[in-house]
Specification:
Rossmann fold; six-stranded parallel β-sheet; 12 strands
């Protein structure tokens, strides 16, 4: 069976789709799993051994062009994990016989099977809602998936070179202080600075600060904050897969709930993550796809409150005792 799975939004959202892709492939290895995704996620998708083909929706071409790309794949069934009118209408035009999607928004009229999920109630995590849609196609499907879900055979050789280049001789705790506007909550830069400087005093770990390719200003700002201290600064200009290999070798990855957090959880790295103090932005909805035992979640109260100060002390203590 040729199965199309659609998730055309950001990195973290795409990663929440990967367990669904894995279980669909594992259900019957003869299934051809085809994804329709954003261009930013293409290189990662092509490294997943449970994805057979990739359709990139560049968002600039017409919906007719997207429909044509889909039609060429002779799709038997599709599962749209997060829908919009564009991808829904393209699948309708491509004449996919069975089209499954959550019953939300006006786009649902273009699907043959509409599933009531009410994700706003947050009864499950995002990736668990995605997995539930696979059961609409195969009622007896096993929803368990391997851990870590994605791994790289050559990651250690990449990491050895990274450590050599940066004179790293200890295990690494990494901090990713940016978030690209995709998170509802984060520590302030002052709070991150406090955490890192106290961690450096212990001399137990090497600190690496990572930055996305569009965070050059933040990268330079943090270098000024830690001038003269033993901190490695890495601007991710070597591509998403290289970054994933690097993250997979870290002892701990500290960040807000953003795409890099989901990437760290995907490759099996322990995480310490900050979430917004609301159900919609919480870890209940946005926990990583990795082992829950490796995830440490903190819901951040508003800045300047006693609750925030108390939680920050707790975060600092857990980090120093890691």
């Amino acid at each position: 069976m040729n199965i199309l799975v659609v998730r055309t939004d950001k990195l973290g959202d795409f990663i929440t789709a990967l367990p669904t892709l894995y279980v669909l492939k594992n259900y019957d290895r003869s299934n051809k799993i085809i994804v329709c995704i954003s261009a930013i996620n293409e290189v990662l998708a092509r490294k997943c051994d449970f994805i057979d083909e990739v359709i990139v929706d560049d968002k600039e071409s017409s919906v007719l062009t997207l429909a044509s790309k889909i039609r060429e794949k002779n799709i038997d069934a599709s599962i749209t994990l997060f829908s919009n009118t564009r991808v829904a209408f393209a699948q309708f035009l491509a004449r996919i016989p069975k089209r499954i999607a959550p019953a939300t928004k006006i786009a649902q009229i273009f699907y043959t099977h509409r599933v009531q999920q009410r994700r706003s109630q947050v009864k499950m995590a995002e990736f668990e809602y995605n997995l539930a849609l696979a059961q609409e196609l195969f009622t007896d499907i096993d929803l368990n998936y391997r851990q870590p879900l994605v791994s790289f055979d050559d990651r250690e050789s990449f990491y050895d070179v990274f450590c050599l280049n940066h004179e790293i001789e200890k295990e690494v705790i990494a901090f990713h202080v940016g978030f690209g506007g995709s998170s509802d909550a984060n520590l302030t830069l002052d709070e991150y600075e406090n955490l890192i400087k106290n961690l450096l005093i212990t001399k137990k770990y090497q600190v690496v600060m990572t930055f996305g390719p569009d965070e050059k200003d933040l990268y330079e700002m943090m270098q000024n904050r830690f001038k003269g201290l033993d901190v490695v600064f890495y601007l991710s200009v070597d591509g998403l897969v290289y970054f994933a290999k690097l993250i997979s070798c870290f002892k701990l990855f500290v960040s807000t709930s953003t795409g890099t957090y989901h990437l760290a959880s995907l490759v099996g790295t322990p995480t310490m993550t900050f979430f917004g103090d609301s159900l919609f932005a919480s870890a209940t909805r946005w926990k990583g796809v990795g082992s829950l035992e490796k995830q440490r979640h903190f819901m951040l109260p508003q800045k300047g409150t006693k609750e925030r100060e108390k939680l920050f002390r707790e975060i600092q203590l857990k980090l120093l005792n890691f």
